Amino acid sequence: xxxxxxxxxxxxxxxxxxxxxxxxxxxxxxxxxxxxxxxxxxxxxxxxxxxxxxxxxxxxxxxxxxxxxxxxxxxxxxxxxxxxxxxxxxxxxxxxxxxxxxxxxxxxxxxxxxxxxxxxxxxxxxxxxxxxxxxxxxxxxxxxxxxxxxxxxxxxxxxxxxxxxxx
Length: 167
Hints:
The chain is mostly helical.
């Protein structure tokens, strides 16, 4: 399927400064391999004028051929599409956190068997799901502390490097 970025063979390229019927500079971009097959399939219609008008309308930078009277519909560009926003990222993070929380609650509820836990001389009975949850949160806190220390170390080194550059 053609992307509609190239004019039909023998037709002038439409663009800034190139109008239908006027001289046009030769295109420096070669035709893609699938364009010839698409053009051949499109040229089986009753009129090649209909085909070239259809291809011109599918191009975002194409001007309307003279004499048709109706402007070509412009496809929406990437600038018209909404981008990624902080609110969207926060919303996605909240939804992901809620899904994980629901899965965690299900895990804890399914693992209610009492287990004996010993830690530095302390001993007690705790539900298995809660013991595993506490262990995983403790591991996460240790990783976060180590990562935070490394981030602070890198920031301090970068700050020192900037101070050396200014001297």
